[in-house]
Amino acid sequence: MARRFQKFHDTSEDNSGEINISPLIDIVFILLIFFIVTTVFVEETGIDIEKPRAASQKDLDKNSILLGITPEGKVFYGGSEIGVGGVRSVVSRLIRQQEQPVIIQADRLTPTETTVSVLDEAKLAGAAKVFVSTVKN
Q1: Cα(132)–Cα(58) distance, integer angstroms
Q2: Per-residue pLDDT of the chain (137 residues; tens, 9 = 90+)
Q3: Rounded distance, CA 133 to CA 135, Å?
Q4: For the chain, does the N or the C end have fewer beta carbons within 10 angstroms?
């Protein structure tokens, strides 16, 4: 009986209770790639603005096109200045990829004419929904 037991015992490797963690490292790496690929990054305008107050303010989707307007009337998207003339091309390019609302974050001291011009350009680019961002009153 002792001989049979020795037959099945492998003496070539002495693992002495070690656990092989190679599959665990592979699984963690695959999960890391999965979370990186599925993460939604919120694109900011790249400027600090003081939003106007409104009583009818509500939260909107995180997946939207954010345009920022400074008090001087400069228009920004993704940290770079695009100007009023660049709004139509940026919005139409992004809407072709995926239908999403446009949110205009205008400073409270921004001239109304500039805000309306940006709103018009976004609508002419084909945006179905255009909102002006405010702070709850």
Answers
A1: 11
A2: 555 555 555 555 555 677 788 888 889 999 999 888 887 666 666 666 666 666 555 666 567 888 989 888 899 988 888 999 999 999 999 888 888 889 888 888 888 899 899 999 999 999 888 888 776 65
A3: 7
A4: N
Q: How many CB atoms sit inside 10 A of residue 17's CB?
A: 5
Classify residue 64 by its DSSP letter: S
* Cα(71)–Cα(68) distance, integer angstroms: 10
**Nearest C-alpha neighbor of 116 from the set 81, 75, 66, 82:** 75
Separation between Cα atoms, residue 135 and residue 120, nearest integer Å: 22
Q: Domains of the chain: which residue ranges? A: 53-136
From residue 52, give the alpha-carbon distance in Å to each of 70, 123, 137. 12, 22, 9
CB distance 107 to 51 below 8 Å: yes
Alpha-carbon distance of 80 to 84, in angstroms, equals 13
Identity of the residue numbered 23: P
Fold of 53-136: Nucleotidyltransferase; domain 5 (3.30.420)
